[in-house]
Design a protein that fits this description.
- It is built from four helices and six strands, in the order βααβββββαα.
- The chain has a domain at 2-135: Alpha-D-Glucose-1,6-Bisphosphate, Chain A, domain 4.
- A six-stranded antiparallel sheet has the order 1-6-5-4-3-2.
- It has helices at residues 15-22, 25-32, 111-168, 170-187; strands at residues 2-11, 45-48, 53-61, 65-72, 82-91, 94-105.
- With 200 residues, it is α+β, with helices and mostly antiparallel strands.
- The longest helix is centred in the C-terminal third of the chain and has 58 residues, at 111-168.
Length: 200
């Protein structure tokens, strides 16, 4: 006899990122901590967790769904392959993974009672969480450079304009300055001058 169960988890990554990492041998290995051999081809053989899990790709829809046959070294010869169906739905806090694991041998309940959470969902959250933090740090490091460059460009035209006015219109520019000073002298009997005034 066999049974099926459904689990869900929110992963801090896009649906396409999770899809790509799951089907990539290196990323799947880094994500779970166990050596994996994966493929993005239909009917290709796959394995995970150092050969503890073996199976085949049955259905692949990029960024939406992965369906694979799975069996572990705990399956007896008379046991048929189990089926793992993953669907991805993006939300505001990440991507909701809905996992349906069917045709699981009755006596093997560890997959439902913590196996998936411990060996996949939790490691995946840490894996993509680190990637997000690295991306955030990289964006922050690049931001000051762009602002500094923009500041330099904006100051150049103003500097040129001041120099031009100083050369061509120095006599005209001096006239209002003299008038403002003379006005202050007239109002002040003591002859005193006032001083001018911003990613884990």
């Amino acid at each position: 006899m066999s049974y099926a169960f459904t689990l869900t988890s929110v992963i801090p990554a896009s649906a396409q990122e999770i899809y790509d990492a799951w089907l990539d041998s290196l990323a799947h290995s880094e994500m779970t901590g166990g050596e994996a051999s994966m493929s993005d081809e239909i009917d290709a053989e796959v394995s995970a967790w150092d050969g503890y899990i073996t199976g085949r790709n049955l259905e692949l829809i990029p960024g939406e769904r992965i369906v694979q046959s799975w069996r572990t070294t705990q399956f007896a010869e008379e046991h048929e392959d189990s089926i793992v169906r993953l669907t991805f739905e993006e939300g505001t806090d990440g991507t909701l993974i809905t996992l349906v694991h069917s045709n699981v041998p009755d006596e093997q309940t560890s997959y439902e009672l913590g196996g998936w959470q411990e060996h996949y969902f939790e490691p995946m959250k840490k894996y993509f969480g680190k990637r997000q933090r690295r991306g955030s740090v990289a964006r922050k490091a690049a931001a000051p450079k762009s602002k500094h460059a923009a500041g330099k460009k904006s100051k150049l035209p103003a500097t040129k304009a001041k120099k031009t006015m100083g050369k061509k219109g120095s006599k005209r520019a001096a006239t209002p300055t003299i008038k403002r000073k003379s006005g202050k002298k007239t109002r002040s009997k003591a002859g005193k001058r006032s001083r001018p005034r911003k990613l884990h």
